[in-house]
Write a structure and sequence with these properties.
The structure holds two protein chains of two kinds. Chain A is of the alpha+beta class. Chain A has five helices and seven strands. Helix content of chain A is 44%, strand content 36%. In chain A, strands 1, 2, 3, 4, 5, 6 and 7 form a seven-stranded antiparallel beta sheet that branches. Chain A starts with a helix and ends with a helix. Classes of the chains: A alpha+beta, B mainly alpha.
């Protein structure tokens, strides 16, 4: 009898936690960051457009419109790590480059391709070669997300927009909330029945 | 009636009183919702990593959940203990074959112990939904943050217990507790404003009563220019805080055993 009450009350508490999660999941996302602008890429060059940690409660929207074909990449790496890797790669192969020449070499698509070749697990997503790319990205775990655009075949003039939207709880939480609520209802059944019987006895 | 069955019976009665349906359920909702509202990327920077991020998530307990928890503790103490004294129901308890300190312990385990277990249970469960990996990797940081953040509500509860025992009035003690809570919580604003790296004694004294300030300063060294405590200093403030908590409860026990007249 007492065990029924304890399990039932625990179930009721769990139900309320599930309800709180469901309520939090029902809130629409808020926009916390937006960057947009235009950029010119030289032939066979690349540019980093954004690098920030994205949590499981955030969603990143990437939109690129270009006059020629571009390819958009999302990498699971911080900009500082990528740039230090690229610098050492360039200085190993071209030790005599300095100043502007070194800067240009650092932004050559060969460097980027070499990075991908050496770190294939850091590629989260890449688009096809296209003039228009738009993508909504959401990660289940906090991820360092770096957005890179390359111009592999022609020089490019492009317009870009990056928007970060934030949710109170990770996407997919409403499913978790339903699971919690259903299992808590199962826990509550014996206790509710006992209460109901008591109520009936009192009425008689 | 033997001693053990008296303990069980009294504990059951106290639980029934303190945790009437749906009071803990409502508080569980408020704790969970408060955690979800405060543990989002707007309040917490994912640029911070490791134990700093774990601290940020664990210290989300310090906002809305802790406010609701303090109210819950106050309600349990002022109505669970104060109401019994006010209406003379406590006489019934004294007829049990139990010592006075055992009676007070039963009351406090119900009022403080279970309420704390409820808060921590709901908060940990909520964090497991949000950031399971952070919680698992930095368990020590999370536990330390909880221990530190709970010191201040426990201290206020001890104060409230003394007021309840002395005044034997539930309403008055509740008002005194809420007043003390708001007064102490607001006191940090003028203290912070008047503090500087050369003169931060006020902040240090405040941290004795509320060590969560010291821990906050420790984990936000880039922001806290006024005072950057070392980790051992933080532990010292936690020890002093809990020493005060222990002291106030010892006084409460002594009063309940020796001086309390019904």
């Amino acid at each position: 009898m007492k065990l029924t009450i304890i399990i039932g009350r625990l179930g009721a508490i769990l139900f309320m936690v599930g309800l709180a999660l469901a309520v939090a999941a029902s809130f629409p996302p808020g926009r916390i960051g937006q960057t947009s602008g235009e950029e010119q890429l030289h032939l066979k060059s690349f540019e980093i457009f954004s690098s920030a940690p994205i949590s499981s409660q955030e969603e990143l929207f990437v939109s690129v419109r270009a006059n020629n074909s571009v390819r958009v990449y999302l990498l699971n790496v911080s900009e500082s790590y990528f740039m230090s890797w690229a610098s050492s790669w360039v200085s190993e192969r071209f030790p005599n480059l300095e100043g502007y020449e070194a800067w240009v070499a650092l932004r050559n698509i060969t460097v980027f391709d070499a990075f991908l070749e050496n770190n294939p697990n850091m590629l989260l997503w890449s688009s096809n070669l296209s003039n228009v790319v738009s993508k909504n990205i959401y990660f289940e775990k906090a991820t360092n997300c770096t957005v890179v655009v390359t111009a592999p075949s022609e020089p490019v003039y492009l317009l870009y927009e990056l928007t970060t939207r934030v949710y109170l709880v990770p996407k997919g939480s409403s499913f978790k909330a339903q699971l919690i609520m259903i299992s808590s209802i199962v826990l509550m059944i014996p206790w509710t029945l006992t209460k109901f019987k008591e109520l009936l006895k009192l009425r008689r | 009636m033997n001693k053990n069955s008296s303990i069980v019976e009294m504990f059951t009665m106290t639980l029934n009183e303190d945790y009437r349906f749906p009071i803990p359920e409502v508080f569980a909702f408020l704790y969970a919702f408060g955690t979800f509202v405060l543990s989002n990327p707007v309040s917490i920077s994912y640029a911070r990593t490791g134990e700093h991020l774990a601290y940020d998530f664990a210290s989300s307990i310090n906002g809305l959940p802790m406010f609701f928890f303090t109210i819950f503790l106050f309600k349990n103490i002022s109505y669970g203990i104060g109401y019994d004294l006010e209406r003379g129901i406590a006489q019934t308890f004294f007829s049990y074959p139990l010592r006075r300190r055992q009676i007070l312990t039963i009351k406090l385990v119900s009022a403080l112990g279970l309420a704390t277990a409820l808060l921590l249970g709901v908060h940990v469960f909520s964090l497991l939904i949000l950031v399971p990996d952070v919680l698992r990797k930095y368990f020590f940081t999370v536990v330390l943050t909880y221990v530190v953040d709970l010191c201040f509500p426990f201290l206020l509860s001890g104060f409230l217990l003394l007021v309840v025992l002395v005044s034997k009035k539930s309403g008055l003690s509740l008002a005194a507790g809420i007043g003390a809570y708001f007064l102490f919580s607001m006191l940090i604003i003028p203290i912070m404003l008047s503090s500087s790296p050369e003169s931060n004694l006020g902040l240090k004294v405040y941290s004795v009563f509320n060590p969560s300030i010291a821990l906050h300063m420790y984990y936000n060294q880039s922001k806290s220019r006024v005072w950057i405590p070392s980790f051992s200093e933080v532990l010292l403030y936690v020890a002093m805080g809990y020493f005060l908590v222990a002291l106030i409860f010892i006084v409460g026990y002594a009063y309940f055993q020796k001086r309390l007249e019904l």
